[in-house]
Amino acid sequence: MNRKIALWLLWVGFIAYLLFLAPPLHLEETLELLKNIFTLNWVNVNPVILSLFSLVGIWLLIYSGVLFFDGRMQWIPFYPFAIASIASGTLGLIPYLALREPNQQFSGRKDAFLQLLDSRFFGIALSLSTLGLLIYAFLGDWVGFWQQFQSDRFINGMSLAFCLFCLLFPTVLGDDMARRRWNNPQVFWVTALVPLFGPLVYLCLRPPIQENVAQQTPTSFSSSRVR
Known about the structure:
Elements: H1 2-21, H2 27-38, H3 47-72, H4 79-88, H5 90-99, H6 112-118, H7 120-137, H8 142-151, H9 153-168, H10 170-179, H11 185-193, H12 197-205
Helix pairs in contact: 1-5, 3-4, 3-7, 3-9, 3-10, 4-5, 7-12, 8-9, 11-12
């Protein structure tokens, strides 16, 4: 219950920050930025901002690699929140994290979509894409990015959303490890404490989920119980 309250407070607090405390929204500039990104007119986009925008998408795929399995066993599916997250980032994700129950099981068979999310190819592809984006970001205008972070609500909010993705991943990591029978506290803490690359390496190395797993009573992950 404390976890749920904390997540709802974080969600409300982030919305309140964006509405009342964040820098002003420059709508025309934001729409022009999004137009340039989606029409591949990247020459007019700061590589730092383009990379950050893309890394938010990488984070959504990382969470998808965990939560589509989790949603199979929840009272509410993950896919509506995944769709909402495409447009709103963490604002669409946090409600699912708050509504879901601890779950360490998976039942049934994996369709083609789940098999893709469960494959090491998925984790490797995301990892290589992330490396490319970070290298590209180093070519950008970091001074200009910092100025926009301080003065533009969209850039400011997107940057903070990236940080929230890093912060929230441990809330679903333990259950995913338990579904895979990978009870290793060292892996949990390295994945949880290394931003972005911890989850990426986890997706590359984790054992696949077995189909038709016998249902068990969900229990919360606790590093003190794993051996």
